[in-house]
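Why does this matter for the project? Reviewers at the last site visit asked to see concrete outputs rather than summary tables. In response, this paragraph embeds two records directly. Each consists of the residue sequence and, immediately after it, the corresponding structure tokens. Nothing has been edited or filtered.
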Amino acid sequence: TLVTLGSYLDIEMIEHLIKQDFQGENDILFIPYNPFSTVKPDWGQNIVLKQNKAKEIVLKHGYTHLFSVEADVILPNFSLRKLLEDDLDIVAGVYRLHSHSEGLEGQLTGFKKKIDRYEAIEAGKDFNWGDIIEVDFLSYGCTLIKKRVLENIDFGIGLDAEFSMNCKNKGFRLFCDTGILCGHTDHYKK
């Protein structure tokens, strides 16, 4: 499994990431998402460029999965192992959105499509903690993606939303493992 993350490197996040790989069976690739790049000045384009580079590495070097971890997500111990055991094409841990997520602060990162909108999943209503549930949209801040998905899907400028829609359009199902509740560092409030 190739593990990627980017942006600023939070010490707490790094410590939790290292705990995922206690036997050394995974390779960890740090890909900084520099929003001030002179090559790609738009931060979204920059993230897409780096996600597609990670995809290229997975496909070229025989990795089985891509584990995408955003730099502000704090992983519970053994998250990667649990997601691998779930054995799904696309499965994500959940975390709560932070203050820059207009109108969504505190909501979980799995969404179900309603008639005219997407709604965040809610414990007790859509799932019980520990359930693995199918969703229509997910954030890939803690997401494990099998190689066969990457062979058919590109990361695009719409980031999480476009990735989710492309996967659904190609027949891939999206899941959230609610047994993996990650922390989410809110640098916007600092």
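We now turn to the second protein, recorded in exactly the same manner.
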Amino acid sequence: MANRPNPAGPVSKRSGEHAIDALARRVVEVVADRQSSLERRLDAALLRRFCEAVSALDSKEHVLLVAEMMASGVRAEDITDLYVPAAARVLGDRWCEDNMSFADVTIGSARLQSLLRWVGPEWQPGWKTPVNAPLVLVYVRPDEYHTLGAMVATGQLRRAGCEVLLHIGYDRAETLDVIEREPIDIVMISASGGERLESVRKL
């Protein structure tokens, strides 16, 4: 990403902390509103088919099903924001119940992640971010193996009008360098449900 000038400078940015807090709250509200709207469009029978396709031995079955879903009128954002996360929860539950191996869950998760890039318009070449969009950095710790949620959130933020830098696999020093160099408005840390809040606070 090309460096963008920060005419406000560090002093002005500190004086605008209240505005940044308000912006952060607004972004979270927009994403939450979108998610609530999506949940009303979840079809349980279609979700079952989606989960089976993602878990199938045939590596193309999930792609064919998604193409069928879109042809029948299911929106791309419904797939990325609703069916992908819901399927990830189902796969996790099956593993916890010993109904699916860790290897199968890993393969299924990789397929879900590939669907985000294949279906989501915000991952495609030519996607344009609004001028003067807030710049958000989404950080996934190097020791964090759950990356699907961060990718889903990144897509939602981009569609909500944000410019997003997704840091997966970056060490802390690399990310701090970007934060010092770029006019970042919001930093988000992605942590799995089992992550200790104290370790996130220290980070």
